[in-house]
Amino acid sequence: MQRFSQIFGQQKCKVIGMIHVDGLPGTPNYAGKWKQTIEKAIYEAELYKKHQLDAVLIENMHDIPYVPERLLGPEIVACMTRVGQAVRQIMPPHVPCGVQVLACGNKQALAIAKASQLQFIRSEGFVFGHVADEGYTDACAGDLLRYRRLIDAQDVLIFTDLKKKHSSHSITADVSLLETAHAAEFFLTDGIIITGTATGQAASPKDLEELSGRIKVPLIIGSGVTKDNVDLYFDGAQAMIIGSHFKRHGKWQEELSEEAVADFMRRICELRMSK
């Protein structure tokens, strides 16, 4: 918790805004407009800066269909590093910036964070294997933390998904969410993320209740938070990642809605003042 507080500050329930980068070169959705891709990420960073979000998270969400880590090309790392540098220059120094590389590009994300001076990554498959829509995901904690040491990136926090969305967890059905969380703690995670079953789907309040106050690392809500349900998560979580709710019509594929961002942050201010 101490490292998290040092980087993210003392505000209650931090708000982390998603920057869904347009399809990158070499992926099916790439539109051939690399300069515009960077400019769009900069625009979204500026909007988040204007509304005083606590952190931002950059992700190659539009690179569908995703490929497993072994098939991620150097162009993805190079382009995400360029975007990371651009976003880092926009956000104030005290505002943490992070990166996730889909799918399971955890070492790639660490390298990007190191090069772009980002403060955290979101990692898939940290503990326990599972089957995702891009294939089998194996546990990576041991390899990933050794790589972090190898590239001198110990100052980059690793937040890890538990029983990740868009995945089947039947092979670990006999392992509870709390047991999974304790395994991630034992394997030195810097923070735990819980989600719904798919992008934009709300995390179960029962899952939050099962973990809240029973783990020693920060607990982060990774999907489905809106201004209408944020009360359910505000007291039990240390942070929340907001993506779909900040988009037009609440759909992650749409453009960022400044009105949605402003409304949500007003609600957060109200909650913080009332506690």
TrEMBL record:
InterPro entries: Aldolase_TIM, BtpA, RibuloseP-bd_barrel. Belongs to the BtpA family. This is Uncharacterized protein.
